[in-house]
Amino acid sequence: MSFEEFIMSHMADDTSKLLLAKDRWPDVDVPLAVSTIEGRRALAKKLPSWMAFEGLRFPDRLCTEQCSSETTAAYKASLAWRICADSGSEARKGITVSERAGKSSHPSAIPAGSPRIADLTGGLGADSAAFAARGFSVLHNEMNPVLSESVAHNFALMGISHVCFRNMELVPGCLNAVLEGFNPDIIFLDPARRSGDGSGRKVFRLADCSPDVQALRDELFSRSRHLLLKLSPMADISQVCLELGPACREVHAVEYGGECKELLIWMDREHDGGYTISAVDALADSRLSFDPRAEKEAAWLPFTGQAEGRILFEPGKALMKTGMYRSLSRAYSLEKLDRNTHLYICDSLPETLPATLGKCFVVKEAVKFSGQAIKDLARRYPRCELTSRNLPLSSDDLRKRMGAGSGGDVHIFAAMTSAGKMLFVTEHKTT
Questions:
Q1: Interhelix angle for 371-380 vs 395-402, to 10°?
Q2: Considering only Cβ atoms within 10 Å of each terminal Cβ, which end of the chain, N or C, has fewer?
Q3: CB-CB contact of 132 with 162 (8 Å)
Q4: What is the rounded distance in angstroms from the CA atom of residue 5 to the CA atom of residue 381?
Q5: 230: how many CB neighbours lie within 10 A of its CB?
Q6: Separation of alpha carbons 324 and 319, rounded Å
Q7: pLDDT tens per residue across span 366-389
Q8: How big is the chain by its Cα radius of gyration, in Å?
Q9: In angstroms, what CA-CA distances link 343 with 27, 325, 332?
Q10: Which residues contact 130 (CB under 8 A, 6 or more apart)?
């Protein structure tokens, strides 16, 4: 039985039992096959187009957990392309680089005129694949030799070209060796967000990630004007940009599947004019940009107290991550329920505000928050969705008080407003 046949015939099996019985298949690398089976399961939704290829290898679980989805990778590729276009990167002549495929090396010509991106923390290669598909010539560097060889194998199997592979540790003083023969227009980095103490715990501070971007900063800028960083969505935007300095030009909070998946930081060596923050829906390819310097002084529009028949707008995770709560109100004439209640009321959502960056509800009724009102709503809506905002009780606490099951067409928001605590009975706006 071949490696590929083993994987496809055991996709539905208990992988722990396969490992225990590995002696039954002496011609198959069962541990690699098991990690590949688990990887295919994990990547079925993240990288659906890859699943058409039966011979792919995924050597460990961590690489599949941490890789980008096809959608978010495609957004990074489009952003990187815009960065190169905006900066007027000159077309470069094709040169020959060493391309690694498995244990062998052979030359591969990089097409003349292609912008070049160096993915220095390549991992499983989802981002590198997206860069190549967008038209970049790509350098994929991965420290783990087994993973590096697997990615080269996978790319060859999928017909992904114009990628050269390196297997080197990224530490201060080694960048020229990593980039030998490759002159990037832009460098991409996705620092590992796990503790190096062996505990495997997740970390969110820039200084705790690996490689250390701060330690490499001058060296990176000596080889490329542009850096694109992918950071944890849990990172503090203002703190990260303070640490990275005035070269920060744009911050993108990227949402996909209802979650903020990543922060992208564009750093420009020749820029020192402050940065913008953008909320992005990667699937809908919609984006809103703000100037964070204006947020503290923004005069948000207060809630008038009138809600019935109007639209309640709930910002999505990317918009919430930007922290541009007042600016959102001011820019789009949205009444903010309260200073610390990030829900908005309007007569109709402005066309310039993409609905995909949040959810829109039609307010059926709005009543003062009270025990009697909760009992009345519980009787009328035994099944509904519930959200509590800026109140001393959680959404789960509110559900317990109402005794309501989930589901149904109604969504009830309990929130602090400028008119006091209120309950908003809403339905999703469908058009």
A1: 70
A2: C
A3: yes
A4: 53
A5: 22
A6: 7
A7: 999 999 999 999 999 999 999 999
A8: 25
A9: 60, 9, 13
A10: 68, 70, 73, 74, 76, 77
